[in-house]
Sequence to fold (115 residues):
Amino acid sequence: QVQLVESGGGLVQPGGSLKLSCTVSGMRRSIFRMAWYRRAPGKQREQVASITDRSVNYAEFVKGRFTISRDNAKNTVYLQMNTLKSEDTAVYYCYVQSVTNDVDWGQGLQVTVSS
Fold:
């Protein structure tokens, strides 16, 4: 059974930083792509950033502020979030896709940016 264990969410003031982590276990096939999505109150889920062995992609609204990285040996993906804004408040979800296109989602982490 695939498990995604997320950590690092919480409350931070505007301009602050947080680092999210997501460790995957139990996946039968190799991981192809890992990503972070988010769902803000009253909005649809949207992709924040994704990473494969060859490429990294960011949504426009996080470029220059967020950095996604991956430790293949640990099956872990990170999201370093800097210069956080109130509009970054959302539930953040880890996503993993195998080389055979199996996908799984984490439970979600609440990130609240507020003074």
User: Anything to note?
Assistant: The radius of gyration is 14 Å.
